[in-house]
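User: Second chain of the day. Same drill as before.
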Amino acid sequence: MTHLLEVAGLKTHFFTQDGVVRAVDGVTFTLDAGQTLGVVGESGSGKSVTALSIMGLIPAAQGRVVEGDIRFKGDSVVGMTEDQMRAIRGNRIAMIFQDPMTSLNPVFRVGVQIAESLRVHKGMSKADANQRAVELLDLVGIPHPSERARDYPHQFSGGMRQRAMIAMALACDPDILIADEPTTALDVTIQAQIIDLMMSLQDRTGSAIVMITHDLGVVADIADNVLVMYAGHPAELGAADEVFYKPQHPYTWGLLDSLPRHDVTDKTELCPIKGQPPSLVNVPSGCPFHPRCPYVKEVCRTMVPQLRDIEGGHMSACHFSGEPGFTRTEMACAGVSS
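Assistant: Same format as last time:
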């Protein structure tokens, strides 16, 4: 079976004066039409670099995909020429970037920027592309779209700029929409509106979505599958219900235990993950999570665990996942083992 998107053993490294930054180190997942994949993890875990690798936007002077493959509809995009990628990027695979203020060009009107992709990829005339841009702004809930299309990005609020970015991403009816922290810095009401908008547009177009976020609540609500990343490595991968209700990796336990729970009535302290994520220039030997893991054993310090199937496609990169007695109920707010 050919998946819409296949990422296999992806490794993307950056080459700096301080050493090799292993931003993505062995990520694997698949995505089919109409599915939503949630990608979660702390800052610096490699989520955004994974997305940029798929889009072919890794700066050649600084980094590159050094290993693995990315296939879109069966065709490898790794090694494609810039012209070949340009035909896919923004057309078949689109991305909503984290900061719409820096992603939108401040010297061009919003409508012109949306219309540009239609003229480049669909060959529309200027008039038709501008009219379609107005329709897209209306679709994403921008009031008075014909007037606002003539505004510049600084004249839009944060929520409106994000909606404009969504309109731009959806202009060519892409097969895959990658959303990198699309609700960052927005108030809670606007966040909910943006998420509802993306889900309704997915229902209408049948596109697949890769949702990169820190918000586990959003992922639990909208994702079909979840990829948990840590220090560039995949920690856990599986159906959303499995990952949230039967997590297998201590890092996933830590993420879930650090969240406030509305369904718990007794007053218990939040359980933060001890320590800090490692430098991606000097990733610890063995399991990258072992310096922060309460269950660390000698094998964790020396051997890198591989992502393996624990049960029915639910995968974990922990030496002890699936073993009797190794469960989340044992997780406690304890210091890291010595």
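The first helix runs from residue 47 to 55.

User: Great, on to the next one.
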